[in-house]
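Justification of computing resources. Each target in the renewal requires a structure prediction run like the one illustrated here; the chain below, 393 residues long, is used simply to show the kind of job we budget for.
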Amino acid sequence: MPSKAFMVESVSGERVPFLRGILVQSLVDAGLAFTEAYAIAKRVRNQLVGDAEVLTTAELRRLVGEEVERRLGSEARVDYDAGGGINRVLVKRAGGVEPFSTGFLARHLEGCGIRPAMAARGASLVHASLREQGLVQIGHKELRQMISATLKGAGMKAAANRFLSRCRFNDSALPLVILIGGATGAGKSTVATRLAYLLDIVRTQSTDLMREIIRCYLVPHVAPTLSYSSFDAWRGLPRVEGGGKSSQDPVIAGFLAQFGTVRVALEATIARAVKERTDLIVDGVHVLPTHLDLTEIREKAVVVPLILAVSTRARLDEQFQRRSREAPDRDSARHREMLSEIWTLQNFMVDQAERADIPVIVNWELDETINQVMDEVMRHIAARFPPDQEALG
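Resulting structure tokens:
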């Protein structure tokens, strides 16, 4: 269905179509970076809803001004409302110069494991400091020094330390590999998507997709467990002659058999990303860190393994019920039928992780889960790259 058209009416009564591209260009002309201008124009367009199909230029300018303030701060709003260019500071890097962005800095600080409110405050304080000094251009290293000093001066020493560690890690060019395991319903894919945005990681991989690809190439009798889900892979196990009974729970035995087939592809995917020095997030039930050979990989990358879990069986059942309403194609009804098997598998994964001192994060509320995962990511980075002045040199 095409988007609804809106008209902009000037003081003289002339009406012209609202075009996002024109708004983007006007914001670029005012001094914004294209990415910021595009984001602001897109958000303004999304706010144009309702029955009114005509808005005045004053109403449009108010909407744009509010978005400029939300992303860049109140002083940028003042500049915009005054009709002049938005005061920008250029950051000089090896590849050229780019405009300083409060929003970009806030997002970068969030990517250092700094909570959103604190990241936004820190970015605003840095922007204010740049304006107070009347700087037109600042070097990349000098900006780092200012960010660190500003955070410390505002009583955010822990945040400054995380920023310094992240800077040292970025300078190292080592890849970041995050491994997110957990049973069905733990929220792995949702967390992986949020992390990819927060950490600006473009390469993500699901072990479910790996299993499906491998299954297409292997005939069922070669890898019979691949035809089943992780929690009922035991259906594909060969029968034991003589009626002997294994001491291992069949749910776990079936899962481990399936994992053994997927493991080669999983380890190859990780090794390729490390070889190419590319950040990677892998999520899936087959991410079983205790059964992966990560020794050599850890020398060439910062590897963060963790397990997501749901706190209770009742909570897991609620998760599947919600999924059945929001995404009927995800076979949530069957998941509810197999709740006991899924719970058994989660208990196994949690037990394995705790024995190996791998963090288990209970995914109760998404924002808090992301905070805990980011804490774990920064713990690994800081252990490898302690926060010292080397990042500012």
